[in-house]
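Let's do one together. I've listed all components of the complex below, 992 residues spread over three lines.
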Amino acid sequence: MTTTTLEQPQQGIPRLTPDELETPPLSLSQLTWRRFRRHRMAIFGAITLFLIVVYAFGGMLVFSEADANHTETGNALQAPTAQHPFGTDTIGRDILARTIYGGQISIIIGLTAMLVEVIFGVTIGALSGYFGGWLDNVLMRITEAVLVVPQIFLLLVMARYFSQSIPNIKFIGRTFSGSVLVIIFVIGITSWPYLARIVRAQFLSVKTNDFILAARATGTSTRDIIIRHILPNISAPIIVSATLSVAAAIILEAYISFLGLGVKPPTATWGNMLEGAYNYIESAWWLWFFPGILIALIVLSINFLGDGLRDALDPHSRAL
Amino acid sequence: MDGNIQTGRPKILEVNNLRTRFHIAEGIVHAVNGVSLYLRQGETIGLVGESGCGKSVTMMSIMGLIPIPPGEIASGEALFNGKDLLKLSESEIEDIRGKDIAMVFQDPMTAFNPVLTIGRQLSEPLRVHIGLNKDEIRKRSSELLSQVGIPEPGSRLADYPHQFSGGMRQRAMIAMALSCRPSILIADEPTTAIDVTIQAQIVELVQTIRSDMNMSVIWITHDLGVVAEIADRVMVMYAGLILEEALVDDLYEDPRHPYTQALLAALPRVDKRRSKRLLSIPGAPPNLLVPPSGCPFVPRCQFAFDRCHEEMPELTCVAVNHQAACWLDVTTGKPR
Amino acid sequence: MADIQPSNSAAEPPLVEVDQLKKHFPIRQGLIFEREIGSVKAVDGISFFIQRGETLGLVGESGCGKTTAGRTILGLYPLTGGKVTITGISVDHATKEEMRTFRRKAQMIFQDPYASLNPRWTVSAIIGEPLRVHQLLPNETARQERVHELMLRVGLSPRLINRFPHEFSGGQRQRIGVARALASNPEFIVCDEPISALDVSIQAQVVNLLEELQDEFNLTYLFIAHDLSMVRHICDRVAVMYLGIIVELAERNELYENPLHPYSQALLSAVPIPDPKRDRERRRIILSGEIPSPINPPKGCRFHPRCPVAIDQCKQLQPEWREISPRHWVACHLAA
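Okay, and this is what the predicted structure of the assembly comes out as:
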């Protein structure tokens, strides 16, 4: 063998070479934001959503709730004018103001129903997925049972029987009828199974990773493993599901209010405004057009946003 | 001095100055940066290198298996049977794949379609290239399985891939590759995912077959031990370039490139008592997004000097049938 | 199989004592009420001890149970039978307090550098986790300092303390894993194939690091691997596993130079040597057949179906675990 001039291995640990330090720190959130930015429809959705929210809540500064409920039968069924840019309804109430206050309710219902759904769905999915065994069996059977119940039916029945007995609540300076709470509750507790299943599947998959085993070997408590280790890794499907469920809740509320069994007037929601327009579809288009287009816009923008989030949060998409 | 091995046997594959690039969002990955190699009839060459060095991409480029885009064969030629493989159309090269040049891949689990039987998959090259009838195919498939050492071959044709163990799947893949009697077999890390006793079986199998069929073999691997067993001639790749090329005995006894020397010194031996700490090569293989300038091994090379940073050394003859791409003469420790 | 007692009972009892360890995974079937129809006998009665400061190698091919053994020894899987005692704590009968201590003193380094670090956590959080869980330091600042120190010790630049795993290479991630294992000042570390997933030129870096740390902190290692060359390099004693049991256990050079069990002999002869001349000279023992499933191990000696020298007795009777020569244990009828 040729004598080489290769030295004996140097003592100490090899240091990093300069180019290993070159890449700028990019956390996963920053990468996600970059991917999101490229999704034009998602940006459009986000902006539109923001504008609608500003409209619904900012509008409180321009119109008071009294304005929204102020009837003027002499002025009923007026087409849009400068004084009533969205026209008036069957008993002379200003539609613009009503869409503002109605929007608040629809959005609040959407958000809180989503919260209920996320709390139930994630908790049950996590316990099921992590522990498995009999707990998983029991929880999944419950989940399936809830899925069997037709959501609309339950909503109608509960709205009909319970909305009278629940008192009004005060929130952000407004008084809401108890029916709003019932609706939120029912939507929340019937929508969680979908999320629970997704969360459970994610837990089953992430649980098998070595870093979870490493956490156990370190002595990390089960609670910490679930909350600090696994949950952050499955935030993507939860966020996407939660986003889309807001839209679903808004539609659901509109649906039952349209049937007359949701939130009762005089409190406005976009749904019950549509109900009022039922008989005037051709003769007074402004009765259904404005609430209708607002529902369509918010649902569309949430869906675009959700699409963009799904793509941005997906670690497998070709990034940057 | 030309440095080519004088064995008198004809060259059946000749690759000249192959450059392959990939266009991705972050930039251009220079995967293969000017690789030239050749294969003689009946020879087995080993293409050795660590992950990312471009050894697989080189072969995939020759076989037309690089997706274009994002891939791009920027330059080079691959001459086989008087034709340049890189210039052939898809259907022309399909004609050659599986028939004249066959490939065997690393992961026997994913190389087979899980919903088709082994027999069906094994017979595909026969059906496509040779056009035998059903009985002839069955007979030949059974023969092939038996040739690769699978017991009860007739009944195993009806099995699905998951019913075969890893080693058996690899054998079946070799059988499929051999079915049309190719002149060249390209094996891309065929034993990396396999246990060592099964690996020994597969290596022995390939050695038997290649002499029976007078086949030429290109064996791609990162395992310097396997290459020592099976290859006649070895090429060491790094960052898309061939840094050293020699007959197998010469490469291991007398490595002339600092990278090869360092690699060999970093390997523990199963047949020797431990004498000293393993040599660890500092740093890591380079980022291929940066276009090459100068020798890619510079950041990790103990001997690097000015010229190394500026100019990429060409493969030059350093001994009989032995080439190295380095500005240093390792025998003297001084620049050439 | 008899217990192994250290034949020269050193003044200090062994740090790790494993006695007839069994780990079976039940196979369940049934739609509503699942019945157990069999079990995968991944580990089926292994015994060994490790003295403080020693490195014991546990080698074998896939399915032999070595990874399961490592995890069961650390209490990550509940054991099915036998006893494991580490630093005096009996893993299966430990109280909650004892388990806390155990988790501090016994750690693990994992094989897959990509799956063993939480992708959403920073390096600081990953390495600092043991510090937090065991409340070893009073506040976050102290923890950060210690993480800083650990990173330096394993050769990572502390500037990278707030980066995420995906920003590092495989070798660097393994170092992060090593730093995490060191954080709680353990006495015993199970290294589960820590270098298999790394490039050759990086493997030596990590192995050298492990050795330095062992010297510095008087660590004890159980080194699980399938790379017999690396095992010879780093281990003091080596145990060979096959299908859930240990077939041979000896001092390093004794095992490699004088293997007594036919499986060890075949295994060693199958390991490729990066030296073509020596490789040609040696005698290869090629085993027939495939590695059987651990669900139904063969009767008698588990190795008999593949053993080139099996006799009748091997098919009926399980061989006894005997000390054939000082500190050299074998389970084989013929070796006795």
